[in-house]
Amino acid sequence: MPPACRWGILGTANIARKNWKGIRLSGNGVVAAVASRTPERARQFIAECQSEVPFEQVPTPVGYDELLASTDVDAVYVPLPTGVRKEWVLKAAAAGKHVLCEKPCGADAAEVKAMVDACRAAGVQFMDGVMFMHSARLPLLRKVLDDADAVGELRRVTSQFSFAADAGFLGGNIRVSGALEPLGALGDLGWYNLRFALWVMKFQLPEAVVGRVLNEYATDGRPVPLEFAGELFFPGGVTGSFYCSFRTELQQWAHVSGTKGAVTVEDFVLPYHGAESAFVVQRPHFRVRGTSFQMESHPTRYAAAEASDGREDAQETNMARRFGELVLGGKPDASWPEMALKTQLVLDACLKSARDGGRAVGITG
Amino acid sequence: MPPACRWGILGTANIARKNWKGIRLSGNGVVAAVASRTPERARQFIAECQSEVPFEQVPTPVGYDELLASTDVDAVYVPLPTGVRKEWVLKAAAAGKHVLCEKPCGADAAEVKAMVDACRAAGVQFMDGVMFMHSARLPLLRKVLDDADAVGELRRVTSQFSFAADAGFLGGNIRVSGALEPLGALGDLGWYNLRFALWVMKFQLPEAVVGRVLNEYATDGRPVPLEFAGELFFPGGVTGSFYCSFRTELQQWAHVSGTKGAVTVEDFVLPYHGAESAFVVQRPHFRVRGTSFQMESHPTRYAAAEASDGREDAQETNMARRFGELVLGGKPDASWPEMALKTQLVLDACLKSARDGGRAVGITG
Asked: Which residues form the GFO/IDH/MocA-like oxidoreductase domain (chains A, B) (predicted)?
């Protein structure tokens, strides 16, 4: 049997169930342990996941510190609330564990820098849990964006990621808790908008950004953004805009426009359920002849043959597999922590702009 | 034979060929005369249009003043450059002619107010040439937006209208002349973005706007916007954003998002060539059960059965027909000049914000 990356899951957030399945399907990983503040909760989480997606050896329910001390664990997946994440990532790095970290990685870039530095010092991999980075759609999209005849020179990247939270969410979900998730919708959703824009721009940072909190909400006296819009000013005159919201029903579109065409992705974060991940290149042609004015649509659809979710080739499985390869390879890839840190830098600047009346804020990497 | 609205076309801009055909197909209008600075040019324009789309009685080539003095003309269509439009609209109103005016209607709202006031005083109809306002798609879209169970409460309206001008356009087209088209892409394209947002909002004005000239260009020492982005802050927390550009290839999408769903229009200005004008209501469903996370797409397509262009039921034909009905009805509809004026007010405020470093600018109707 080939060696496997032995994962510990630090917390029992719902999203960890998806990654449990991703690890199971990755082919190079096993969940060795799950930690919770109460062993009973970890036990229940394990039982429920095992009933659907069993590992041969049932993972062990443990406490947080016990998990980090375990010699049966190589890497930790950290879905803990952002507000307490730094503490545990630093402990994990100190314990020599590789870290796959949910987003937003930290409350601010200083926190993320501390995490990234700690992981580098410990020689362990750091990566944020942005699944779409691991879709086969992305290299396909890159090829199209790099094809000088398809989209041409880039001009604009725009995206929206939103869902309408229900009353229960607004009443009690940690994502509106100022202490646990101080970045609210900007951290939970805007992270994807910003990551996508940075990816399109090959991680060139914007020179400046503008942000606006359109709506905020406080459950514990510390308001968090529920709705946020921002603009990005990249070098060379490329600009971007994004909108994220807990008050607006599900949408996850992105448009990338250039001098020759545009790409539209309807579902850039979570591909629509099915057997492929797609995008469309739009190159309409306006045909004017005498009194005849016709706007012709000339879309070309590109699709990566991969499952949207829950299969061996789905993006979350690819993420677990890629992380496992890095762990097993023993040589951390510095580009992943760098991407996370840049995303947080831009996010911070957007929020700073918003807190400062929407003035343009420069970014210093 | 029923009475017909007798049109005079003031200028021979290319877009007038489309409206010639629209008038011909409207069923209640005829082109009686075409004016140009040189009679030869009007003659040639008439000959070319007649060869494709003939009127029984060949329209007369005339000079501008002659056209306005003609007792054979009830209404004028004004595709003249924005920079000289006010002068001729005021003259037309004084001559008792109804006015269908290309957009942007004026260089600023003061000009448009003067035109609108002159038309009101003369008892003639004023309307801007926004064809999409006359598509059968719009009442269908209104019905969906007003259906509390479809999109829900409005939150966000976003749109892009752009095309990449070629070197010839940038070298000599009047749309980049500061004297003739001082509003550049903001006037030529942004007018549609703003009109659509205002239409969605039932012409409630934004409380404030923000604008940014992303790129500008001067052929005559007076720079015009080539690329512009703006944000709109409506009462009740509804927000909008728009982007228009002469530097970015053809796109004309609009998204309207609410608490329950969203509407996507791919081609909100000029419907893609075909037999219908469509839009899609997006109501994705994120189904989470245990370790299974599925993002389901549940789009519903709505289409108005009408030609995109060049037929009796196309939006430009509907515009000519509706204007003809107003002329023949003898009772001007005050809502059309009001819509044009509001569009220009919002546009002015966006430009003012842009010229003032992107600060929020309030709108006073």
From this structure: 147-263
